[in-house]
Amino acid sequence: MNKTENQKAWLFVLPVVLLVAFNAVIPLMTVVNYSVQETFGDNTFFWAGVIWFQDVLNSDRFHASLGRQMIFTFSILAIEIPLGVLIALTLPRKGPWVPVCLVLMALPLLIPYNVVGAMWNIFALPDIGLLGYGLNALGFDYNFTRQPGDAWFTLILMDVWHWTSLVVLLAYAGLVSIPDAYYQAAKIDGAKSFAIFRYIQLPKMKRVLTIAVLLRFMDSFMIYTEPFVLTGGGPGNSTTLLSVDLVKIALGQFDLGPAAAMSLIYFLIILLLSWVFYTLMMRNEAN
Question: Where is the ABC transmembrane type-1 domain (predicted)?
Answer without folding.
Answer: 66-277
